[in-house]
Every structure is written in C-alpha cells, then in structure tokens.
Amino acid sequence: MWKMKRVCAWCKKDMGTVSSEDSSESIITHGICKACANKILAQQGVDLRTFLDNLAVPVIVVDATGTVSNANKQARALLYKNMPDIKGYRSGDVFECAYAKLPEGCGKTIHCDGCTIRMTVMDTFQSGKSHLKTPACLCRGTPDKCDSIDIFISTEKVNNVVLLRIDRIDIGHEVR
Q1: DSSP letter string over 23-53?
Q2: What is the rounded distance in angstroms from the CA atom of residue 106 to the CA atom of residue 157?
Q3: How many CA atoms lie within 13 A of 99 on its CB side?
C-alpha cells in the first residue's frame, strides 16, 4: 500500500494523503477541495451537468442512499446509457449488477453487504475519506449466470454527494 499526497487540482491546497495499491502512480494525486467545489458550482452560467461534462473522466454523482443523481457524458457513454436510464436509480441498477435484479433490489440483498462499490461510496459518505483506484468486482448478467467484470473506482465527497469516478473497467475499456 502506497501513501500518496493529495492536493486540490484548482488551488493546490494540501488535502492530506490517500492510499493506493498501484505503485506506478506519481506520489501526488488530485481532487477538489470543498471551497473550490463550492466556488466552481456557484459560478454564473455553470450548472452541475456542464461542470461534470467538462471532466475528462467518467464520473457518477451518488447521494447518501446510493441513488445516482447525475452522470457526465463520459460515464453515460461508457455505460451505454442516457440520463433517464441513470438518474434516480441505485448504483447497482446503473452498473447492471446481477444482484440488483433480485426482488430485494440494489443495496438490500445478502450480496450487497460485500459489494466493494457500495462499501466504498458509503465509507466516503460517512467518513469523508476519499478512495483512490479501489479494485472491485462487478457481477453482470443474472444471479445464476453472471460475468465477472473488474472495475477500479475512486470516490470523493463534495458537499452532500459522492463523486464516483470510474478509473478502469477490464472489459476492454481503460479510462485515463
């Protein structure tokens, strides 16, 4: 486990450290501090969707219940979805998790307790701690016949939402 210094990409404020299992990364990683996030979102003429669409990486906005409230164009393209297929749905439904299709739904099955995506997002909500390139395994298909897909995610809490960045999906889609 490597410790990486984290700085705000906008104001360069020191934001502490994050852990990463990937030793090939630089010793500095970037996020956005709360002050800069508030400033950017408060600028005239810049709404959240425009801000997100200007990010070069796929980002999904998740609320405290695990429900997706927004996704940028890169995330929508990667997931082959439009906003009506994303907004208001739980993360497992958006990622097409096989277990989200069970009658209990996303976040409420026995399988959800071990879901790295869910646990990482909820930890960021509760602790405020960001996670960097966390490896997770996504089961897509049906519960009795699913394809396992490796995914790497990063999370950052901004105000009352978590930005879930898709760093890499090992099905031929690598995001840089």
Answers
A1: TTS-SEEEE--HHHHHHHHHSTT--HHHHHH
A2: 21
A3: 17
Residue-range domains of the chain with CATH: 2-174 (3.30.450.20)
107: left (phi over 0), alpha (psi -120 to 50) or beta: left
Confidence of residue 173 (pLDDT cuts 50, 70, 90): very low
The whole-angstrom separation of Cα 161 and Cα 39 is 16
Q: What is the pLDDT of residue 33?
A: 76
The alpha carbons of the chain give a radius of gyration, in whole angstroms, of: 16
Q: What is the pTM of this model?
A: 0.74
Instruction: Give which of 156, 138, 174 is closest to 62, Cα–Cα.
Output: 156
Query: Using one digit for the tens of pLDDT, what is the confidence trace for 13-65?
Result: 887 776 665 555 555 556 777 777 767 666 545 567 777 888 888 999 999 99
Neighbours of 23 (CB within 10 A): 8
